Every structure is written in structure tokens, then in C-alpha cells.
Amino acid sequence: MTVDHYILLSAILFTIGGIGFLSRRNVLVALMSLEVMLNAVNLALVAFNRAQAGALSQSSFSGGTAHTGQVFAFFVIAVEAAEVAVGLAIVLSLFRIKRTVRSDEADLLKN
Amino acid sequence: MGHWLLTLFPATDFSLIAVMLGLPLLGAIVNGIWGKRLGPDAVRVLTLAVVGGSFLTAVLAFAALTAHVDASSHEHVKLAWTAWSWMPTSTAPGLYIPIDVKFSIDALSGVMMLIITGIGLLIHLYATSYMAGDPGYARFFAYLNLFIFAMLILVLGDNMPVLFVGWEGVGLCSYLLIGFWYEKAPNAAAGKKAFLANRVGDFGLICAMFMFAHYTGALDWAGIHAHADNFINPSDAMRVHVWPLGGGEYQGIFSFLQPHRAVTISAATAVGIALLLGCTGKSAQIPLYVWLPDAMAGPTPVSALIHAATMVTAGVYLICRLSFVFVLSPAVMMTTAIIGAATALLAASIAIVQNDIKKVLAYSTISQLGFMFLAVGVGAFTAGLFHVFTHAFFKACLFLGAGSVIHGMHGRIHDDDKAQDMRNMGGLRKYLPLTYMTFLAATAAIIGVPFTSGFFSKDEILFDAFRDHPVSPFTAQLARAHLGVFQIPLWLGPVLYGAAVLAATLTAFYMVRAVILTFFGEFRGWKVGRPAALAAGAGAGHDEHHHDDLTTPGRAPHESPWQMTVPLIILGTCSIFVGIIFNAGPIKVDALHSMDKWLEPVFAEAVLGGVKVVRDTNELVVGVGGLAAFVIGTALAYWMYISEKGAPAKRLAEEYPRLYKLLVDKWRVDELYDVTVIAAVDALSDTSATFIDQWLVDGIIAKLSSSIVKLSGTVLRALQTGVVQVYATMMIVGLACFGWFFVAPHAATAVDSTHEDNGDFVVSAGPGMGYQYRWDSNGDGKPDGDKFTPQSSVKIHLDEGQSQTVKLEVENAFSLRTTTSVSVSRAPKLNVVPAMQGNPGQAPAMPGGAK
């Protein structure tokens, strides 16, 4: 298991999420796809951090315990939570107005 | 006393002025903000206290000034106080104009200061009773205190900008007080009219200020005085070009407008006309006098204080203050004198047929201001200011007397217009004895009964108009520079004298007429007023203490309370006696300074240089004219309204109905302005509203740009599908393009040819992240080395006329490669063959010589 495997997994997850977001019309599923994409990014961040930490441990810089990537992943999780809160609020509003959660029916701004 | 004050307040830092100015301002602020809550009693006490304090301070300051003048043996000295530095300005590099908030008291402003605070105090006392019961009591005194403050700023300001602040301040207070009863539309309109007429004049004043800054580089009196000779500088650049305006030149199709010689006037004339415009606005002279009769819509104390005694004399004050500028231009002096005489005559002719007692006094004020303008126009600045001084007493007394009459009439007639109509009065001396006595005293002064104040001041004006002749003080110097100087024709003096005597005759006539109609005969008001008021269902005029039954005949007119009669008595007494004390003529009580001696240092320079005595006459001889005016005018009025009971007046009106109508309509000047100036402004604003705004702005600018936006919106709207996934796809496509741009390498080269002379060129590659380069610098088609290196530039050497292609390959971090090439060439060497040194055989072949 090298870093490459993790990156590959991350790329696959990201692609799945992206295709899911673009193709599914149910807003809830689209939000789930977003989660998948964000977690793919988290995985990549953690994996890169792991690889980088190994390289940095050779130098005296931060004594081989650089956690930037992992800390960044936590930031992403926090932002993700906020995004879901906002996203679900929007979905709820949409449902109240349109009685649907299908994104192609949410076209009040069309033309 | 004065010396003691001077040790306390030195002449160069006379901070007592702050107290004089500060007290009325304090009164205005407190009355204006808290007056309603404090109640009328507190307002009355406060307003009298601040104005009284200001008057006391003014008396102290005058004592100090007297001591200062005595100490400096009648030089032109002043007590000055700089509050703060206001707007330090520089008009050109090295030219610095310090504009300070600076005040000064000299002989001229000292007299004005005493008039303003002294008469102001009396009128405040009067108004506390006159305005009693008015719902706007506190507001009234806030405005009135503010007026005292602004007027003091006007006369005490040591430079033009400070004077201008006061000038605008009194204009504002005038506006506010004319429209004091603003619920009635005509009052508000009168306020607006006064304000707008004054704006026209203020335009002139602002122009004059710019000219002062430009020509003298100073705005304070001393600075303007020091450089005043710049105004008559004969050089072309220092004159004011009237045609073509501003000294330009008409070219092309407009060249027919270009005169052979540019029409220029001296800067002195230009600045004088600008100042004169300002003064005619404030002092209600032709052509801007039309606002003053309408200003009578304000409460009567306001008419007395602002529109008779103080504010309207500001124009005369300004001419006196800048007398040394006015005398530089005889043309302006002549214009001033003619405007004055014409206004005196015109206003007097209107006054003889008016029936509203306040209108008669308003036109009388305009007429008397005309006399003052006539005086300063012929260079008799002292006489002009002396008339300001005496006029302040007798006209304030007349207005307050009229106010007292109206107040008394309101006891019977609850209608503002009818209560002021002299046709409804008559016989009032029985009911208002004190008012009658004081009104009679002031009338005696204004019509020139011998030895009253008006007699002396008017006589002096008539005498000076006949005798004096303004000339340019620099005539000799300008003649040496071969410049003609405008000469006032010699016959003008007697003509002005004649016009003034005629105006004085009319004055005597209309004032005696007013007295007879108001106070003599039988009271005519029993029959009028009440049925009309009853029909209108109105409970009243503004004074609410007369709420009686309208169906009964009602009370008789009544005398006013002591707060109103005491000022009347004081002013009436002064109207009689100030003349004989302060006049400069042969008949006087010589106990005090005459006004002439007192003001001599202020006007010394202007009068010595600019006024020539052209007729050797005796004042007593010329004075016959004034005396005759009084006798004829009075006798005529007596005959017409007492002996014949008004029958001749009626007969005249019937015989010449058109002339009579014209006079009653005030020569229809307002109507003339309506069809000319106001119609022109209306037409202009109509054009702006319809053509420029609706057609140009709305039609082209707004509609055109909105249709462009609409069109592009229609095109772009097609892209808005409203489907979230489509937007997301577009975003991803955009990101992909963006990503591709960063992933692909970009090759770029730059050639540095600064050392072309040596044949050395440096070709460098554009930088990028993780870029490595491989060069082919010798043009053989093969790279210089196999490997990509970080070397980002190559140096090549070329011979003259040689060129070479340099090829660059770039590889980035993703191992993607790209190629570019650049051609570098060196200019061929020129075979320079100088013509002079060249081979004779070669020379014809190269006629141009060196290339």
C-alpha cells in the first residue's frame, strides 16, 4: 500500500461523486454526492500528508511531525458540516415551495 | 474708563468683541432649542438680557475706541480681534491670502455697532409685548437674536469673507422673519422673493470677492487698501475685457464678432459694479428694490429693525467701508448717485398713493435709502452714513408707531389687511396719544422740519450733491499713460440736487398725508371690519387677547402697553435731537464730536483724492431747497387732506385714472419683471424640463442604454436553464480549461539587444513552475545539449547584417513539452560618407551626404 493507492482511491471516489452530482436529479442524492467528493479530497489530503511527513522527517523542519494535511482535512469536515446545514435548509425551503426535491423542477430562475 | 478697558483688552487683541457677538448667539441658540419648554417669560428675560448685554458691551467697546482714537490723535485706528485662522488660501505660488475670522471696530463700524445693538434693544423690548400670545414667541426671538448676531458680524468683520457670512446671515434672518407667519401663502412667497432678490445681489458680491483676491491678493480691508491701485493699472492684462469677454479672440466663422479694438474697462469699474449690484440687492435699490415692499408681510418689529434701521443699510455701510475702491472709478460713483436719486424719486412717487400704512413706510424706506446712495455716490460718505444714523431712529420710530397703531386697531378690526389700511383709521390721536406724539416727532424728522435730525442729514446730502464732484484720484497719472478717464458731466450735480429736492417734497407730502389719515379727523373704523370678520367666521387676528363678541360694535382702539410706548418715546426723542448734536453743519450743539470729525479718518483718503468741490456755495443757501421741499410738501398735504378733506385727491384720481392706477400698481415694475426676467427663467426651465430632461436625458441616455441592456439580456437569458446540474457542468468545464492552462507548458522568449553595438544578444525564456529548458542557439537544428536544464537564457554573438534562429524547448513538471523559436538579427553596418570629406568624384552621386 503506497500513497499511489490512496490517491487512486481518492480519484475514483471523486469521479463517482462528480458523476453522481451531475447526473442525479434528487437534491438529497446530489448533496450526498458532494459529501463523497469532499471525502475523496480529505483522503487525498491525509495521504499526501503521510507521504510528505516521511520526507520532512529527514529534515529538522517541525521534527517530522507536520500535520498540515490532516488538520486541513478537519477544516474540510467542519466546512462540510456547515455546507450540509445550509444545503438541507435550502432543500427544505425548496420542498415547501415546490413540493418536490427534484433539482430540475427547481427552475424559478429559468430565463 | 476707556483707557482702563484698553489695558484690559489691548487694541490688537480686543476680545471684548467675543462677548458682544456671543451673547446674541447664545440667546438665539437657547431660545431656538429650549424656548418652547422655557415658556414666554423666560424667553422674554433671556432675549432682553442678551441684547442688553450686547448693547452694554458695545458701549464699553465704543468708550475704549474713543480712548484709542484720542490716544492716536485721530488716525484711522481700530480695535481688532482674531478669533481663529479660517481658510488660509494661496491663489498663485508665493501669493498667500490669510483669511481669518477677524473682527475690528473702527469709527465706522463703531457707529453701526451702536445703532444695531441700541435700536435692536429697544425693538426687542417693544416686540416682547407686541408678539405676546403668539404661538411662535420663542422662535421669533431666536430669529431676532440671530439677526443681531449676524448683523454684528457683518459690520465688525475685518475682511470680505467674514462680512459675507454676516451678509448671508442677515439675509437668512430676514427671510425667516418675513415668512414668520408662514401658514399664510403670501407671507411665505414674500420671504422667498426677498431671498431670491438678495441672491442676485450676492452674486455680485461674490464676483467682487474674487476680483479682490485676484487684483489685490488680499481680502481684508487693510490688504485691499494697500494694493487698491492695482485696480486702475493701465496695462492691458490688468484691465477687464468686456468684449470679447475674458480677453479671447473670435476666429473662423465668428470672426465678424471680433472688434478692431477690444472693449475693456478698468478693474476698478468692474469691481465697483459688482459691489454695487450686491449693495442694491441688500439695500433695496433699483433694480432689486422689489422685495422690500413685500417684506412688510413680517411682524412690524421686524420691519422696524431689519427692513428700516439696520439690515437694509448694509449696502450703504459696504460702500462706505470700501469708499477707497469706489472713488477709483468715477463711472461707478455716478451710477451709484443716479441709482440713488432715481430710487428716491420712484419710491416716493409710489408712496403718495398707498393706503396701507406699512406700505407707505416701506416705500419711504426705499426712498430714504436712495438718498443715502445718492450721498455716497457723490462722495459724501459722511453725509450718507449720517443719514443712516438719523434714519435708523426716525424710521424705527415710525415703524414701531405704525405697529402700535395696528396693535390698537386690532382691538377693533380682526383683519390684518383692514387693520393696516389708513382709510379705516383717522382720529387715532384721541385713542393713542403717546403713539401719536412719537409718530409726529419721527415724521417731523423725516420731512425735514428745521432742527430735527432728518433736517440736518437730508440737508447735508442735498448740499453735497449740489457741490461735490467725484473725480478719479489718479487722473493725472492715467493721462500721462495716455488713457482717457471717465469724467462725470458737470451738470449732473444740479440735476441730482433737483431730483433729490423733488423726492424730499414728495416725502413731506406722503408722510403728512399718512399722519393726517391716521391720526386726524374722525375714526372711520366703526363701520368696517366686524361684519366682514363675522361673515368670514374668523375669531381673529394673531393677537388672541381680543376674543370678544363680533356682533357688538366692539371696543375703541387702545393705547399700547409700556413695553411698546417706552421705545417709542426714546426713539421719538432721538429723532428730534440727534441731528443737532452730531451734525457737521453750521448750526449745532458743539458739545460732542460731530459725525463729520469722527468719521474723517475713515474717509480721509477717498474724499481727499476722489472728491472735488466744484461749486463754491454756502450750505445755508443750498439748504433753501430742502426747506422749500418741506414747506411745499407739507402745505400741499395739509391743503389737500385737512382744508379740502381729501377732495382734491379724489378729483385728481378721477381726472387721471390711468396715472393713478399706474402709481397704485407701483409703476407695474413687478409685472415687468414677471414678463421679462421671470418669464425668461420659466422658459429656460421649461426647455430644460421638456427638451433636455424628457427628450435628451430620458429619451437618448436612459432609453438607449436600457435597450442595450435589454438586448444583451435577451441573448444571455437563453443560457439560464435553471437546472443546477447544467451550472455545475459549466463550472467543471471551466475548471477543466483552467486546469489545462496550468498543466500545459508555455514557451516564450524575450531578446535583450541593449548591447547590439558589440553584436551581443541575450535570449531569455519566460519563467514557469518546474520549467526546464533546452536551447538550440547556433541554428543547426540540433539542441545544444541532450538534457533539459534550468538554464533560462542564452547569449549569442552575431556579426553585422547576420541573423540567426534560436529554438527553445520547454518541459514542465508533468513532462509535457513545447517549442518556440525566435529570429535574432543585427542591423547591417551603414557606410557613412560625410559629404564634405567625401571623394570629389563620388560627391555628385550622394547629394544628400550622410544618411
Could you please describe the fold and organization of this structure?
The complex is a heterodimer of chains A (about 110) and B (about 850). Chain A is mainly alpha-helical and about 110 residues long. Chain A has a single domain, classed as Helix Hairpins (Orthogonal Bundle). In chain A, about 75% of the residues lie in helices and about 0% in strands. In chain A, α1 runs antiparallel to α2. Chain A starts with a helix and ends in a 13-residue tail after the last helix. Chain B has 29 helices and 14 strands. Chain B has two domains: about 650 residues, no CATH class; about 80 residues, Immunoglobulins (Immunoglobulin-like, Sandwich). The radius of gyration of chain B is 40 Å and the shape is elongated. Chain B is mostly helical. Chain B is about 60% helix and about 10% strand. In chain B, the strands form six sheets. A three-stranded antiparallel sheet of chain B has the order 9-10-12, with no helix packed on it. In chain B, strands 11-13-14 form a three-stranded antiparallel sheet, with no helix packed on it.
Range of helix content of chain B: 55-70%
From the structure provided, what is the oligomeric state, counting identical versus distinct chains? heterodimer
Shape of chain A: elongated
List how many beta strands of chain B DSSP finds: 14
Number of helices of chain A: 3
How many strands of chain A?
0
Distance between the termini of chain A: 51 Å
Q: Could you please say which CATH topology of chain A applies here?
A: Helix Hairpins
User: What proportion of the residues of chain A is helical, as a percent range?
Assistant: over 70%
The CATH architecture name of chain A reads Orthogonal Bundle
Radius of gyration of chain B, CA atoms, in whole angstroms: 40 Å
- Please give the domain count of chain B: 2
Largest interface: A-B, 15 and 11 residues
Strand content of chain B: 5-15%
Strand order of the largest sheet of chain B: 9-10-12
Distance between the termini of chain B: 95 Å
Beta-strand proportion of chain A:
under 5%
| Model regions low in confidence, pLDDT < 50 over at least 5 residues of chain A | none
Give the helix tally of chain B. 29
Write down the secondary-structure element order of chain A.
HHH
